[in-house]
Amino acid sequence: MHYAEITGWGKCVPPARISNQDIATVVDTSDEWISSRTGIKARHVSHVSTAELATVAAQRALDCAGIDAKDLDLVLVATCTPSTVVANTASEVQQRLGATGAAACDSNAACSGFLYALQMATAQIQAGMIKRAVVIAAERMSWYINWARRDSAVLFGDGAGAVVLEATEQALGLLASKSGCDSSDRSILHIENFGSNINKYEAIGGSELHFVGPEIFKRAVKGMSGACDDVLNQAQLSLDDIDVLVPHQANLRIIQAIQQRLKVEDDKVMVNIDEYGNTSAATIAIALCEAVERGMIKPGANIMSAAFGAGLTWAASYIKWGQRVTPVRQSSAELPPCPQTGLELIADAVAACQK
């Protein structure tokens, strides 16, 4: 049987940062209000496109794996903030990487997107259809934000993460997964004024994100915890067998509720929402990379990951890590310099929203 080992990993976080103190100059809020309710202390704002974020994360993952882009069979981009819809964003990433001949596809499951995409690419490798893939989760959530709305303006950030999957005969990589969607309540988390349902000839205002926080909280905890239970049963594992929990970084309270429900110790839970906020599909991909960097993921580690997003989609995955936790080669992939601060980058958008 074929398996899909994670042999490379890389992240790309834009340099421009907006602290809670900074955002308090834009909307009526404070560091105490934000951090006590969400656990967020800062978020990063991109000066480049989603495709550029994705490309740098992917190149770093390829360098980590020690393979060249021309050896890829698939470039899969999970995003709900594509640079372009037609042609897809993955095709631009494929072009930028020089992954000549690789299939290129976008997928959108919002915050669950990385785990959905990981399942898709793994299934192709398991079926013998491909041998190597790069799975990227990249988001520019700041593009959707209405900077006059405190409830959403403080939550989201930009960034990207990627992993390289390679076929192996060893039982490594994604070994068990469960995904689903509670579409009956899809209206509680949505982007308005976006997509082909709208009348493109009518002036309707900017696109912005709307959500019902308390309802999302309840469904996220239930959906993610239940999916983790299903995956553990599928993999015939107990919670004691899990070395690291890498949850979606939407709200620290949600993470803590899932941790308590699953009875996982603090030192086994990867948390970085304080620095990045919610980067949608990119949260787990970035967190996975940082868990390796922090030494939380060791050779042979058992990793549980779970996410919940718009749709309302949910997913959980059990990943068996291989033996390598250091890059094969160092990467020189970088974003172009950003001469502006985070507040300077969003200044025009803030002015428009405040009108």
TrEMBL record:
The active site is at C111, H248, N278. CDD domains: KAS_III (cd00830). It catalyses: malonyl-[ACP] + acetyl-CoA + H(+) = 3-oxobutanoyl-[ACP] + CO2 + CoA. Residues 106-182 form the Beta-ketoacyl-[acyl-carrier-protein] synthase III N-terminal domain. SUPFAM superfamilies: Thiolase-like (SSF53901). Homodimer. Catalyzes the condensation reaction of fatty acid synthesis by the addition to an acyl acceptor of two carbons from malonyl-ACP. Catalyzes the first condensation reaction which initiates fatty acid synthesis and may therefore play a role in governing the total rate of fatty acid production. Possesses both acetoacetyl-ACP synthase and acetyl transacylase activities. Its substrate specificity determines the biosynthesis of branched-chain and/or straight-chain of fatty acids. This is Beta-ketoacyl-[acyl-carrier-protein] synthase III.
